[in-house]
Design brief:
The chain is an alpha/beta fold and about 325 residues long. The protein contains 11 helices and 13 strands. The protein folds into 3 domains: about 5-100 and about 210-230, Periplasmic binding protein-like II (D-Maltodextrin-Binding Protein, domain 2, 3-Layer(aba) Sandwich); about 105-195, D-Maltodextrin-Binding Protein, domain 2; about 245-315, Porphobilinogen deaminase, C-terminal domain (Double Stranded RNA Binding Domain, 2-Layer Sandwich). The chain has helices at about 15-30, 45, 50-55, 60-70, 135-145, 155-165, 180-185, 220-225, 230-250, 295-310, 310-315, and strands at about 5-10, 35-40, 75-80, 95-100, 105-110, 130, 150, 175-180, 195, 210-215, 255-260, 270-275, 280-290. It is globular. Belongs to the HMBS family.
Amino acid sequence: MKTPTVRIGTRSSPMALAQAHLVADLLRKERPGLQVELVPVTTEADRWHGDLSALGGKGLFVKQIDVMLQRGEVDLAVHCVKDVPGDTPLPEGLAVAAHLPRDDVRDVLLFPEDSARRTLDDLPHGAVVATSAVRRRAQLQRLRPDLEIVRVRGAVGSRIDKLDGRKPVDTARPDAMVLASSGLARLELTGRACQVFTVGQILPAVGAGALALECRADDADTAGLVARLDHARTTAEVTAERAMLHDLRGHCNSPIAGHCTTTADGRLALRGMVFSADGSTVLDAEATGGTADTPAALGSRVAAALLGRGAREIIEAIPH
């Protein structure tokens, strides 16, 4: 490399820092002696505690770091793929150089630390469940229409503190909370997960469990080093999912789910779903790629099937 140091731009939340430290360790293994510097930033979205759609969407989690990357203030960004907007191209001059091996994509149910409940079925009629994602809200209401679903924001640790009663909440203290399994694992909090939902119960978000490593497209040194970390299977699966999301023109407030897997014979299988806000209307499509299919072509095929069934009307009915 031309420079002895790689500067990683990252959000300042505990989970983002854990992810950045993971990447730093992997880079040092690839190039012993390499200096890696973390450059934390608190984004506008991190400071905002209201509805993200009112601020401009989840893309604000990555926008500020991308600007730093474009300006040359950092050399590499570590993003959760699910936070990267799917309806717009990457910022000018930036490219994804690698995806790390994907973590668990499933969502999990948590209860207050003093609760004896362990599953969704244990919740009484009308119980309050907290989640930040409209995708989860729609699918939870399919499983249990009687539940009251409330929004919760903040870092994972802060959300759990609200669940346990150690921090105040805007509404009644929730009886349960839904979070991502991968996020708990990165914070070494997997012991808090009581019920792990199957992908059949709650289909994951596009890009769930995957980390994207982004750099400047003209920075061949950094791109070449980072590319050694790429997990080809994850890249192919994420590419199919994001192609579907792009063709659906899904925004941060769209109840869209997508999950791609690799079959035993090496083909990609993608399932996509679009929900109305209350989960009462569900569109479902899936396809397996042929030998000549690219991941993006598979994603476009599933998106076309969903659009043919009325996905555009459902997506546009939900405010950005």
